[in-house]
Amino acid sequence: MLGLNKKDLSLLLIVAFLALCAPFILNPFPSDSSLAQFNAGYPDLMQRFVIFGIFAIGFNILFGLTGYLSFGHAAFLGVGSYSAVWMFKLLSMNVVPAIVLSVIVAGLFSVVIGFVSLRRSGIYFSILTLAFAQMSFNLAYSVLTPITNGETGLQLTLDDPRILGASRTESGGIPVTNFFGLDMRDTYEMVVGPWAFQFNNGYYLCAILMLISFYLAIRIFRSPFGMMLRAIKSNNTRMTYTGLNARPYTLAAFVISGMYAGLAGGLLASMDPLAGAERMQWTASGEVVLMTILGGAGTLIGPVLGAGFIKYFENIFSKINDGVLHTWFGFMPDGLEDLVVTLVHPFVGKGWHLTLGLVFMLVVIFLPGGLVEGGQRIGRLFRRKKSGDEAKKSTQSTPAE
Amino acid sequence: MDAIILQILNGLDKGSAYALIALGLTLIFGTLGVVNFAHGALFMIGAFCAVTLQRILNISFETIDPTRTDFLGNPMKVKTTYVETWFGPEVGASIIDWAVPLAILFSIPIMIGIGFIMERGLIKHFYKRPHADQILVTFGLAIVLQEVIKFFYGANPIPTGAPDVFKGSFDFGMLLGFEANAIIYPYWRLVYFAFAAVIIGAVFSFLQFTTFGMVVRAGMADRETVGLLGINIDKRFTIMFGIAAAVAGLAGVMYAPINSPNYHMGMDFLVLSFVVVVVGGMGSLPGAVLAGFLLGILESFASMNEIKSIIPGIDQIIIYLVAIIILLTRPRGLMGRKGVMED
């Protein structure tokens, strides 16, 4: 079905199931229990899961397949956001033209940047992309203020023309983004006993787009084109000796991943119509690298996992403060409790980045294949216990995608 | 003319910082072949060494002075630092005043120690792994170091003053026969430039004129052969890593009065230093120094109002623009060696 083999199809179906039922799955704890803070089933966070999932899937097409490590992908995300917001300002509040434009503009940008950067490879490529991204960031902050609104960030105002829509609603407010009349902000709440499940229009739009991008990524991975990209990663010199010009292939991969980033940026702006230059900063580029590596570069599901993992823990860890820690460790004797809280304190709340950095280092050192490889190792461990013969085979087999 | 000289001078202090960080980066890259994204963090740690020493020197105890009263009529509490009680008020005060230069001595062992720990504990395991992995793990380390500093020192910049002697500015124009106040330049920046020149000279002469340096240079050229001659090249490269860390740290210590240390200063400088290294040529020490000063001066020229009115925003992007042009026209950089990171 859909031109996929059985394994890929089941993967796609699992992801689709997870994405569409996310409001249930991410909301396992009753809202009145003390564990409710671990719930992630609210629209804002779920949207970020899938949007950054798209971003990471796109990044993985470049980094996972060709091995070119770009440190400037956030530039495309930022460009996408800006163009989407401009579409809201000038044309209408419908998200479709905004998203289409953001993908196109990000694509054009990545053609230019990719054409120049891909003339070099390895560390030089990383630094060139980094330089381009920092250039865009600096320009967005300073000279391009008429377009980007500088430090304040680009926002909707009541005086925007909005040719195909009203510049203000009847009540005099700024109209909200919609999908042919379906407001992105609208949330249907289903209350089942102590649980409150939230179904948000915006989330479902993002989720469906994420599934489409995921499907496209599978097709790219399995296509001759994807094979070619992997060949470039494993030995570019030999590819060149066979008389093949690798650059059009890498450029195509770069542009595709740039367009994915533009889509993510456009969606970010569609959910919350504002765009700031900090989305283009190199720390933001670093974040998508972290997501992809953490999940598992070069695997299909890895980037989505990584994006979800980072965004979830970012949100949860940032909320934990000393009060919460004291209730957790309240069962311990007082002195011990204080000691444990003092020890844990630097890693939670504002210290989330410290935890992230440590986890990231540990992953790069011990699990270069990311969470996916971790899962495979655990799976192999269990299989080995079952029968010795199978274990031998599985260690020899090539790692699954 | 005076404007041009002023811009060159302005470029020198930033250029010195770029040159010092890029020198350390190149040392590490040239010897160990590792791309160290945590080098900016070392620069930042250096700056915080200055902050720490200043805080240590300012540790004080309170005594009650019965002869004076505060505005509420209570006996006044007087804070006296331990340094002042040990060395007498005058010497003590001047020791506190000279905290930043003293931090040079304080920071060298710390930075070399951090360098050793980093190399032996982490980077050693990454020699055989791809460059992407090296970038990623040191990037992670940079985040961790940055967050640790943020945890202990807070997120706000900490003003760290230069000694009183160096406060104020030097009227450079008078010296060259221009009008008074045409070219004024803060003393500390002159000190910084001189300091950078000394450090750069020391590193180069260490490599050029000592046996140790000769072995290291030989190792940079052909590690395997040097190893086969029965020389423990790994140990020497570890020491070079420590020296590179110390150079970055010293650059940070002396930079503290110019720019109040904050936890993300390392990252800000790191990106630019990488650009400097690439422009100078991967693995070329003179190239790194040359490119550092060149880009620093170019940056300050681009921030002149006359130039900004012709090309708006050029001051923000000049360095990156130069890097892109250089990489595309001279892929090895200004003074890059053949065969180093060719692809």
Automatic annotation (TrEMBL), chain A:
Q: Name one GO molecular function term.
A: branched-chain amino acid transmembrane transporter activity
GO annotation, cellular component aspect: plasma membrane
Give the UniProt keywords, A-Z.
Cell membrane, Membrane, Transmembrane, Transmembrane helix
- Membrane topology recorded in Swiss-Prot or TrEMBL: Multi-pass membrane protein
One family name in Pfam for this protein: BPD_transp_2
Tagged with keyword Transmembrane helix: yes
Q: What is its main location?
A: membrane
Q: Does the keyword Cell division apply?
A: no
What is the name attached to this protein's record? Amino acid/amide ABC transporter membrane protein 2, HAAT family
Source organism per entry reads: Roseovarius lutimaris
Phylogenetic lineage = Bacteria, Pseudomonadati, Pseudomonadota, Alphaproteobacteria, Rhodobacterales
Automatic annotation (TrEMBL), chain B:
A Pfam family this chain is assigned to: BPD_transp_2
Q: Which UniProt keywords apply?
A: Amino-acid transport, Cell membrane, Membrane, Transmembrane, Transmembrane helix, Transport
Annotated Gene Ontology cellular components are: plasma membrane
Q: Per the record's keyword annotation, is Kinase included, yes or no?
A: no
Write down the superkingdom of origin: Bacteria
What GO terms are given for molecular function?
Answer: transmembrane transporter activity
Task: Give the UniProt record's GO annotations in the biological process aspect.
Answer: amino acid transport
Check the UniProt entry and state the signal peptide residues, or none: none
Transmembrane ranges? 16-35, 42-61, 98-123, 190-216, 237-258, 270-298, 310-328
Where is this protein chiefly located? Answer: membrane
Localization of this protein = Cell membrane
Q: How does it sit in the membrane?
A: Multi-pass membrane protein
- Which family does the entry's similarity section mention? Belongs to the binding-protein-dependent transport system permease family. LivHM subfamily.
Q: What is this protein called?
A: Amino acid/amide ABC transporter membrane protein 1, HAAT family
What is the organism of origin for this protein? Roseovarius lutimaris
